[in-house]
Amino acid sequence: MQHYAAGAAAKDRPNGAPALGGGCKERGQMSESKMLEHDESLNLDNSRNVVLGVYAQPARQSMTQKPHLIKARRKVILTAGAICTPQILQLSGIGQRQLLESLEIPVARDLPGVGMYLADHSLFPVSVKVPIHDSLRHLVAGPFQAAKHVLLFATIGQEWLQSAVDRAIYFKTSHINEETGEIQVDETTLDPHKSENIPDAELLLVPVGTKLDIYPGKSLFIFQVCLN
Q1: Whole-angstrom Cα distance, residue 9 to residue 82?
Q2: 3-class DSSP assignment, residue 101
């Protein structure tokens, strides 16, 4: 069993619009219309303030069939992504009271923050051509390289198959020295308890091309700059 607040944290979208709506069906999760067939998508015990189970229905199942109730022996961990997690909570009656009441959804718990903190995650990829052995392209260049890295990952959990993202660097743009381009690193800027140190950008190093239609057959290394 899990308290209602589980999974309710998210980031704000610019217009403050709630997350309630479609968008989950394409990813194989329950669509809004299917969840609305039952008053809840989570089986709630309001008196004890806990979740007892989850109503689930296969995406390809007939819309006329009722969702199945899956009861929890211990906890319910809701991990349906940044969009679908608040959607499921809201359809279960957990969210901003004004929004839920406007859609005639019974309010189980008034949590205004659910679905109100979702923002666009802008990403700007920069492609650099590199030797084939410095990118994931060399895994498809020959069967021996592919077999080698499958074996390394299966035995020690390392090398290319460990992750498609080689490195992830998070930083605060205001900490960048405009003259040198270096990031200021000291006890003050590294203190995670200070709100002014919360990263607002990230740099992802991806050793494979992401635009195969534009750069077919090229061995590329991608620097992806993301604005949070």
Answers
A1: 9
A2: helix
